[in-house]
Amino acid sequence: MSAATDAPHLLVVDDDARLRALLQRFLTEQGFRVTAAADAAAARRALAAVSFDLMVLDVMMPGESGLELTESLRRDGPEVPILMLTARGAPDDRVAGFETGVDDYLAKPFDPRELALRIRTILRRAAPPPPPPESSTGPIQIGSRWFDVQRAELRGPEGVVRLTGGEQALLLALAQRPNEVLSREEIATALGTPEAGERAIDVQVTRLRRKIEPDPREPRFVQTVRHRGYVLRPGL
User: Fold this and answer.
1) What domains does the chain contain, in order, with CATH numbers?
2) Could you tell me which residues form the DNA-binding region (predicted)?
């Protein structure tokens, strides 16, 4: 297998033809394979035909927006990591992106080198984690499910539970230090988004709770420790 074929395959979705071409050229020069799409419909066709390692997605597009596409994919589509691009940099817009399930967020205008750095960070996070230390106690029970720290995989009676890259990284960070409080800053670093605000981290926790808690409004496993952060309490 050639190095080019082995390179991560990215899908760049942006209705701005000039920016789309610039990103395709730059990211190709950075060693990625790149497919470009002008809108959500073209992105859906590409996703149906090819398995991508990551999608770079613009928010503001004619027709189906990037947020709407992300929400749909997180509900029904392939679990591809998503880095969202937008001309809007307000915290509320960033939170809206995390609420739909994006893995990271970059406001325009941006330095292309930062884009490449963030892409590599997400890809590293999506890669299988290193084996846990020998002292690891193995899979951790979370209610009727088990989280395999070595595989970063959550399983239950229904089989493997689908987690986004951000949800997987969050649960892994908590599971590697069970019963220990992690600050929001520590969690943001574990997610590869050290600049993320508190609300963005809270949104990621809320999304994870929907996947693992019997009642997300009364969490038993991922608990809030006021003024300190979050802690995973394993068990039945």
Assistant:
1) 9-126 (3.40.50.2300), 140-232 (1.10.10.10)
2) 137-234
- DSSP 8-state class, residue 182: B
Q: How far is CA 236 from CA 157, 187, 195, 213, 217, in A?
A: 14, 24, 34, 11, 17
The answer to pTM > 0.70 is: no
How does residue 33 score in pLDDT terms, banded at 50, 70 and 90?
A: very high
pLDDT of residue 17: 96
> Any idea of the CA torsion for 25, 192, 40, 13, to the nearest 10 degrees?
-10
Question: Does the structure show a pLDDT above 90 at 66?
Answer: yes
Q: What is the DSSP letter of 235?
A: B
DSSP summary character for residue 128: P
> What is the length of the chain?
236
